[in-house]
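Journal club side-thread
Mid-discussion, someone asked how the predicted structure for our own chain would compare to the paper's figures. Pasting it here so we can look after the session.
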Amino acid sequence: MFGLPKATEMSKQLPKKAIYAKFQMNTAAKEKIDTDISRLTIVGEIAPNKVNIPAGDEVKNFFVLLISLKRKEFDEKTIATLSKLIPQNILFVLEYDGESKLAIYRTKIMQTDWKPTEEQRIELQGLNLDKVWENLIVAVGGVEIEQGNTLDEQIEVNEKRQKLEKEIAKFEKQARTEKQPKKKFEMVQRLREYQKKLEELKDE
């Protein structure tokens, strides 16, 4: 499945009721999961005895969890909640109506684009499972680690850049439509500040 070695394959249902009971979830939290998810199935375990890749210092194994979605426009917070509740390294395969995307949690939910499930592939690259896991995060999140940065530092830098880019786009739009000269001037000044911060981030 997903191009993984046969030895890694599993098919173990994770009943939602068992998750609710184990983690004593309140009604609102249960409803959020129920709104988005119909079924949870562990479909693979990546471990040294199954893939002939040694364990790392931090990652001894990880699981592939297939999430059958009730809707394509799911709430990312639902996946983040699951990843925090289940004390394992998990690569999520989110599936809806014959399409799927990969998702992984590392300080935030990162995900690929949708593609037909039959074309979905999970690449295991690295000399140990620490590196395999890191490479999956990089691949799923589209992270390009710049020289001198750790993975987590790069994710943080990317997030700051994205927030600034959103703010810049918002202020550019507002400045174009603003009629009052004073307000327009203030917006342009703020826009320049954000652009300067963005340049500084890019130069780091």
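Post-session note: DSSP finds seven helices and seven strands in the chain.
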